[in-house]
Specification:
The protein has about 260 residues and is an alpha/beta fold. Helix content is about 40%, strand content about 10%. It has one domain (about 30-245): Rossmann fold, CATH 3.40.50.450. It is built from eleven helices and seven strands. It has a seven-stranded parallel beta sheet with strand order 4-3-2-1-5-6-7, sandwiched between helices. The longest helix has 20 residues, at about 75-95.
C-alpha cells in the first residue's frame, strides 16, 4: 500500500540525471572518448549528405598557403591572382556550372581558409560556380573565407575525415606554394598515388622554381629513398592555362567511391 508520504516524493533528481537524457541530446556523452567513432562517422556522413544534395560528383582540389595574401609582397600577389584565375578556369570549363540536379564535375575544393585557398574559391565565385571549403577546427581559430559556397562550407574536428573528403571525389590535385599544411597534403596524396591506394589522378605542382627550391626531388632519387619512376607521379605548371591543359583530358568523370 502506497502511503501519502511516498506518493508525494519528487522525481526531480531522476529527471535531472545525465543518465536520463536522450542519448542524441546528451552532449557530454557524445563528446566522450568512447563516442569518438560515432563522431568520426557523423563528420563523414554530414558532408556526404550535403555534397549529394548539391550533386557534386567530382572535384579539383587546390592546396596552397594560408599566409599568401592578395595584399602581400609582389610574388605572393602573383600567386594569389594565378590561383584565382585557375579556380575560374576550372569552374567555367570543368562542369561545375550545370542545370539544377545534373551531376557537377570538377568543383573547386580547398581547405576553406584564407590565402591561396581563398583565391581558388574566389575564382569559382567569379565564374558563378559553387565551390567547397573543407575547414578544420584549429587552436588559432581558422575562419572560413567568404568565397566558398555557404552550404558547401564545412568544419572538421578530425584531420583524418577531412583528408578523406579531400581525396574521395578528387579528379585532380593542384598544389600552389605553401608551408607545412600544403606539404602534408601534397605528400599524403603522392603516397596514395605511389602505393595505388587511389585512382591515378593528375597531380600538378604550381610554380616549378618554387617547388624545386623547396623539395629536392632529384636528391630523393639519388639517395634511393624514392624510385626515379616516382618523379612521373606529378607534373609542374607555371601559369593557370598550362595547369588546366595538363589536367584536361586526364580527369575521370566518375568518382571511385573509395
Amino acid at each position: 500500500m502506497i502511503t501519502s508520504k511516498e506518493s508525494s516524493l519528487s522525481n526531480q533528481a531522476q529527471r535531472q540525471s545525465a543518465s536520463y537524457r536522450l542519448a542524441e541530446l546528451d552532449q557530454d556523452f557524445l563528446l566522450s572518448s568512447p563516442m569518438r567513432g560515432v563522431r568520426l562517422q557523423l563528420e563523414y556522413a554530414k558532408v556526404e549528405e550535403s555534397l549529394h544534395s548539391w550533386s557534386v560528383r567530382s572535384t579539383v582540389v587546390v592546396f596552397g598557403g594560408s599566409r599568401i595574401r592578395a595584399e602581400g609582397p609582389p610574388h605572393h600577389r602573383k600567386w594569389y591572382e594565378q590561383a584565382r584565375t585557375f579556380g575560374r578556369i576550372v569552374s567555367q570549363r570543368g562542369g561545375a556550372i550545370c542545370a539544377t540536379g545534373a551531376p557537377r564535375d570538377n568543383v573547386i575544393a580547398t581547405g576553406g581558409g584564407p590565402g591561396l585557398m581563398e583565391a581558388a574559391n574566389r575564382g569559382a565565385a567569379d565564374a558563378g560556380a559553387p565551390s567547397i571549403g573543407f575547414n578544420i577546427a584549429l587552436a588559432h581559430a581558422q575562419e572560413p573565407n567568404p568565397y566558398s559556397t555557404p552550404e558547401l562550407t564545412f568544419r572538421f574536428q578530425y584531420f583524418a575525415v577531412r583528408k578523406l573528403h579531400l581525396a574521395l571525389r578528387a579528379n585532380a590535385l593542384v598544389i600552389f606554394p605553401g608551408g607545412f599544411g600544403t606539404l602534408d597534403e601534397m605528400f599524403e596524396l603522392l603516397t596514395l598515388k605511389q602505393t595505388r591506394k587511389t585512382t591515378s589522378i593528375p597531380i600538378v605542382l604550381f610554380d616549378k622554381n618554387y617547388w624545386r627550391s623547396i623539395v629536392n626531388f632529384d636528391g630523393l632519387v639519388r639517395e634511393g629513398t624514392i624510385a626515379e619512376d616516382d618523379l612521373a607521379l606529378f607534373d609542374f605548371a607555371d601559369d593557370p592555362e598550362d595547369a588546366w591543359r595538363r589536367l584536361d583530358g586526364y580527369m575521370r568523370r566518375e568518382p571511385t567511391g573509395r
